[in-house]
Fold P-loop containing nucleoside triphosphate hydrolase protein.
Amino acid sequence: MASLQQVVEQLVSLAAGSDATAGANVTSSLASATPGPLATLSSIAKMLFSASALREWAILLMLGSLFETSRRLLSSMWSWLINSFFITAVFDDEDSSFQWIMLWLSKQPSWKTARTVEISTTNYGIYSPAVRFSSDGSDPSQNLVYIPAVSECYTLWRNYRWMRVTRVSSPSRGGWAIKDTLTLRILTRDHRILAEILEEAKEQYAEARKASVTVYVSDSSNCWRDLATRPKRPLNSIILDPGIMELVVEDARDFLGSKSWYSERGIPFRRGYLLYGAPGSGKTSLIHSIAGELGLNVYIISLSRSGLDDTGLSELISSLPEKCIALMEDIDAAFHHGVTRESTPPPSFPSSPDPQQADRPQDGPPGPSGSRVSLSGLLNALDGIGAQEGRILFATTNNHGSLDAALCRPGRMDLHIEFHLASKYQAEELFKRFYAPPLTEVMKEADQTGKADSGSVDLGCDGKELINLSESSVPPSPSTSEVFEKSDSTSASYIGISHRARAPKLSTQQCTQLAKQFAAAVPERELSMASLQGFLMTYKVRPFVAVTKVAAWVEKELSSKKKSDLI
Ligand SMILES: Nc1ncnc2c1ncn2[C@@H]1O[C@H](COP(=O)(O)OP(=O)(O)OP(=O)(O)O)[C@@H](O)[C@H]1O
């Protein structure tokens, strides 16, 4: 050891001191005849490889190997122990099973004794929306859930089984995002225990989301991120001409149940629907309703998203889950960056004879939005080799004529459904939906058959004012209009309806009669359902006023429409 120490000291002095000093030291200590650094180095080498030094090297090597071997032995013993007596499951936050297990964990009673927990009011602290809607209808923000805190280790007991939970967050994708991993270690050799837990977690998750539809959008790294969770919209809230909705819903339902039919015939298991026609006619609303009805989530593919190119689009489409609705809104506008729908003359995409130009968006990539998706990129992504099986594609457009034939062909868009401006039938049904008595009232009414209907109703504003049906054309009483519009010099002015104002209780018969009067004033296929809805919203607790005012409103709407058509 002394010799090694000597060598080290000399090396240090060589490196730090001047050559002369170091040389002198080496010379004196080694009693070498040759002066200078060369002699020093050779004497160091001799010392390093002398018999005593080699022995010391060997001892060091043995000690190191012994240490490393025991470390490895212990670690493999620990792994063996864990593998023999525990079942370990790892959940990654990019997989939906992560959401199931987080919800399941948030319901475990063991949290009562945990000393460090993460509290979440809306989700489990990450992306999952499952508990945003409380089942009892109370304010979801009041629902507190406990979830495992990051970098903490928890012990849980379930059916007398000991388990350990660890949640770890680490940077991913080059440090741009945070990735969560949850490890569940169960003291058992029986795999059925894990399967049971997963099944239970999956059921709880499905139950929590029963009443909602989750909408996903893609982020800049082309990964799907949950944007929002919306309550399901009942199908009967969409009013279309008879038969249209049933056709689409039944078609989609039938498709989802025909996987084997498709695979037996070697047909790609995909279906596309193109909804086109007037703006505000219910295209998007129908898609959301269908998603709720079929229990599917909606994945919005925004072709004009900044930074999206053909490769990104393919990635997005191939990473869609097996059963879902992919939604492309305003598919025509995606290829006309910066040009408003109204001012765009209907073009045809691959009109250029130059094949290189044919596949490009009309205004050349990228548009002001930054998107670089080309038509051929879209076509390939829709039914190329990586396209996801089982997905339902819904595309909407207001400009059907502008779409390329290749995009519209069966296999890509199998069913084309046209949406029109509101018919009288739709106007009547919309009115009924606004003011129809609740189902309980309807049932009471049915019970009381035989009793004459009084024909008078409570106007609802103060609970006292009664008018006869025959007086429905009477202008609103001062108290009613006060609720709607108030403006005088002494108080603040407002337009709108107070939410405290109660809607009048109409009988089914009254509602039907008013709806007919309303529909009579609405011209066939001139106004959109969205605009009719907007009008009724203004009178949402005053059906009689709505009926009296509708004719004037229609006239105003038509004249402003005419003016904008002329511009
Ligand atoms: N047929 C309909 N039945 C019930 N409500 C409707 C209908 N059409 C439109 N609405 C109402 O009008 C609003 C706009 O509808 P929606 O967004 O579905 O129209 P759209 O056809 O997708 O319009 P755009 O083409 O401009 O995107 C929604 O609030 C919806 O409730």
Q: What stands out?
A: The pocket of adenosine-5'-triphosphate is lined by residues 238-240, 279-285, 396, 398, 419, 529-530, 533 (CB under 6 Å). The longest strand covers residues 161-172.
